[in-house]
Amino acid sequence: MKIFKDSIVVFFALLSFVFNSCSSTEDAQYVPPTLVNLQETGLLGQPVSIELKNFEADKLQVFFDMEKARIEESSENGITVIVPRTIKRNNPTLKIIDLNENKTIVEKTFLLKKPIVSSYSSESATFNETLTVYGENFDTNKDFISVFVNDEKAVIVNNDYNKIEIQIPTKITKANLEVKVKSQLQETTSSVALALKAPIIKSIRNSSVWLQTYLYINVENFNPDSSLGELFINGVPSNYFTVNDKTVEVIMPPGPYKDFKITNITYKTAGLTTSYDYDVKILNDFIMVDHIDNAGIDHTIFTHNNKAYALKYAMNDANDSANRTYSFLEFSPVTEKWTELSSFKYSGYIADAVYDGEDTVYLYRLSVASQTYSMTKLNMNTFKETAITLPSNKIQGPMIFAYQDNLYLLSGLNNDQGNTTVRTQKYKYSKNNNTWTELASTAFSPIPLVANGSSGQCKYIFNGGNLYLSDGINYRIFKITPSLAVTANPNHYRLFFDYGNSIIVKDVNYWSFFINMETNKSVNLDMDSLFGYSEQFFTLNNQIYYLRNSWSVYYQNTIYTQKLRKEILNGIL
């Protein structure tokens, strides 16, 4: 019995122990992790240390905004996580979640460190040059960093957290360089001074050059993008050039030049200018001194009061060649430039225009609608225009020239409903008396009548008190003296220009020669490269000029005014 009682006591004692043990376990409280210390700034892709207590590393999740961070290491004192490169802003919210309770135990703002520029490898740099930017808080991954110089993106050569090697962009328009660095999802603008290196022209390789060939220039610090630089030869913009390493190759413009040599090269870029003086001989026998835009010139250029004048026209309607607007261009021997005068304007069609060698230009006008002609005389001193009544308003294509205060109108064609006949009448107009006189049929008899189907429009030159006419009908030149005696040159010459007391012509059968009409001395020239098909010459201040359609890549679709090298005539004067 006693044994039974002892057994019962032992049983209840064990049962009491078991119950006590279970009650103690149920009453214990869960202790969540607690934050001890947090690194609140950092860099993309770099570790951030978080000190914790009472944590289980595999029961924690860390987020930067919505981006989960990888736990790189853990210890009894905390964890190390990597800042995700996928975050979208530089101040994300850092959250730590305890998975045991699925609760956020930490929620703080985390800041990416702002990039700082402290210095450069040099105080100045040039285009495409490698420059090192020193500082802090950059990046090792090129996909997460960019550098801008004057707001132009630079090529990154190498980079780490403390320095970036870049190439200076070419699209730079200011010499003071501002560097911006974008990294750690933010931008910083450097306050450290940085300047563009000044361009330098070191030398010119050529001692002589042909127009439209290459001039070679040794340079430093030129922009390799030629569109962002300006090159000037004797002050002339030279747009067709390339920059290769330290050499500039420029296609020589035909002008405008004053003389047959290059004396200065100037270059501008990004607000910087360099200039270089050096003599380079131009080998061509001509240079362009000016160009005329959007104009045609049909009539002889003449000189008056030591200036040259050209009657130019512009087409009002591309489909109507007779619908034109005329004005005068004035050429100064000082500037060697044309200026359009506002003193005279005419809309219509001028069939012929001749100067009398003194002060008057006669304008022979055609009314296309009525097929009738009218004439005016224009005083070149006052630009006063006066109408002249013609002997007939139906004379088509007469030979017109003016000499010694008189105007002469010879021959021409009658056009009767398409049936043309040659006129034999010859007329003289007195500028002083404002009267017409019909001349004898023998007047100016060496000069032929206008041929059927042609025009009597002629070229003329005043020289030595005489008038020289080139009729264009049978390629003959006629000399008219003050006594009105007419001498026909026996050769088939075309009139070009006078120089001194000499009349320079070309033989229609030997087109490559300039000939002195008085002495028949000649010089063989490359006429195509010199003149093309031009026959518009004038002499002014002992210089020879002529018009030619544009022939180079410069000033296309314009009319060049070119100056001839006078020395080519030395053998025939």
TrEMBL record:
Keywords: Signal. SUPFAM superfamilies: E set domains, Kelch motif. Transmembrane segments: none annotated. It comes from the Bacteria. Residues 1-21 form the signal peptide. Pfam families: TIG. This is IPT/TIG domain-containing protein. The keyword Signal applies. Residues 115-188, 199-268 form the IPT/TIG domain. InterPro entries: Ig-like_fold (IPR013783), Ig_E-set (IPR014756), IPT_dom (IPR002909), Kelch-typ_b-propeller (IPR015915). The keyword RNA-binding does not apply. CDD domains: IPT_PCSR.
